[in-house]
Amino acid sequence: xxxxxxxxxxxxxxxxxxxxxxxxxxFGAQAxxxxxxxxxxxxxxxxxxxxxxxxxxxxxWPPYVGNPDAFTPLGEAQVAELTKxxxxxxxxxxxxxxxxxxxxxxxxYLRLKNLKAEIWPExxxxxxxxxxxxxxxxxxxxxxxxxxxxxxxxxxxxxxFDFRADGRNEIQMVPxxxxxxxxxxxxxxxxxxxxxxxTRFGKSGKTILLVxxxxxxxxxxxxxxxxxxxxxxxSNTKLWMAEEQPDGSFKLKMMxxxxxxx
Length: 262
Fold this sequence. Notes:
This protein has helices at 5-31, 73-86, 100-113, 179-201, 214-225, and strands spanning 36-41, 93-96, 117-119, 161-163, 207-212, 239-244, 250-255, 258-259. By secondary structure, it is of the alpha/beta class. Strand 2, helix 3 (100-113) and strand 3 (117-119) form a beta-alpha-beta unit.
């Protein structure tokens, strides 16, 4: 064997080891990339404009007024605009509240991209819970996540939506008249949503989209990031985005489609 061969082989081995270390470091860094969570509020529904028509006789109301399962003309335009906006974005996962207005806000995008969204009953609309939470709130309702009423979607939507094995039924909320319990349950829903986000996607480097409601969305911001936004801070079909930080917390980076700075 040529005496020069051994040093050359040793040099090659060292070089290969160095390359392997860098590659492994790169894979490790990729696995620790931050998660980005986008959230969009549904398009304007008929229930959103009911107050505007309050002084007008009901026989003069358009059929959509007061109906949460119908979009206003503006709402239909918002869906089209949102679909166009999302077309330029890439999401690794999409989840939607079970309501008609949330499903049909995101449905055109799912059709366009041939994607499926997962129904998350925890994304249902709840009252806004601000930064000052009463200290004497009761514990969440024991059966909150054990509803027995099955969630339903139309046959035409089944190609674009899936149910989680543990999320096929409606959330079992107490009546709104029980304000303290209702508030406690609302926080519990946001906390479970945040937990699912962290458990399933934390440190994955993925980008996910949640499709929900206005008041519940602002509560989720508070729970996930600790940031405080006004009660009606989220506009129809506008996005907020929170980015995962190295310590596992989340920072609000965008609100209503514009950078968020406080």
